[in-house]
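Handout, page 2. Input:
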Amino acid sequence: MPTSFIDKLKRSAPAGRLLAAKVRLHSQRALPLIRQVRANSHAPSQGISCICVVRDEALRLPDFLRHYRQLGISRFIFLDNGSIDHTRDLILDQHDSDLYATDASFKDSRFGVLWANALIQRLLPGQWVLYADADEQLVYDGCENHGLDRLIRHLEHAGRRSLPCMMLDMYGDGAIRDLVPAPSDRLFDLCPLYDGDGYSVAAPETARWVQPRIVHHEGGPRQRLFSTPAKGFRSDIAKTPLARWDADVVQIYSHALYPFTLNFGTPTGCLAHFKLLGDFHERAVRAKVLNNHYAGSAEYRLYLERLEIEPNLSAAYEASRQYLTSGSLVESGLMSGIDWNASD
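Output:
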């Protein structure tokens, strides 16, 4: 169907600037809703920081911390939104983690975006920041040997200030409900599989006065498993988690930064997404009850419909591929390679 004039107008450059200004203002207004629980005096003031909004993430946090420390994150800034498990205690035990908290509405915060903007603008202006959920682990070509500081030097040498990514759902070969990690487990070992096909990339609008906002990646196991003839599940799996937060930068929604040019270009990475763990059903029930996710938690209602029919559902199928190293995803065509010598 042809794009209407009004739709094009909404995606014009002036409309984008107005939207960014509105989100920035709302982020500033969200700051008083956030209280400091503990600013860790032992956390380094220099280096690369990670912002993470959490709620009941004790299952994933041990490996999240382990993964990002190995990549060179020196400071974690967590914002807790009403956890009832031991997430807060776990964070407070970390030597490199600050903890903030809010009881405000997750939905009204644009699903955590306003809170993240507020904290980054207040604490980390002008710095390179990684903004990731607790179930997301960043990988890029050569990340086993090149940390984030090296990646950032490479990006800056190329005149770039962001790393666009595709969110890649990871899973194990058994029932989703049985995938319960111990604190010492590496999630890539528990869930080493990913879909090797079925992805699509929608071409951005190219009209002269329309500003493309994001690369529309679709596909993966959630779209494959939870789409029905009556209710199609469209996954939005593009994100830009790593960026230098200059004064003009703001997170518009979970899948797009402004200026929108930050969401395009190479090199690219992947956000390994560990959503399909043993608490998947429980979290879907909670999302439905709280009604605090996009479109009335419609995504989670689709999850529940399938899980009620098939409680031992597995995501594995004949085209599943195994993650061995970051090179696996380059070979699969899911992210770009990086010529590290180009910036030496």
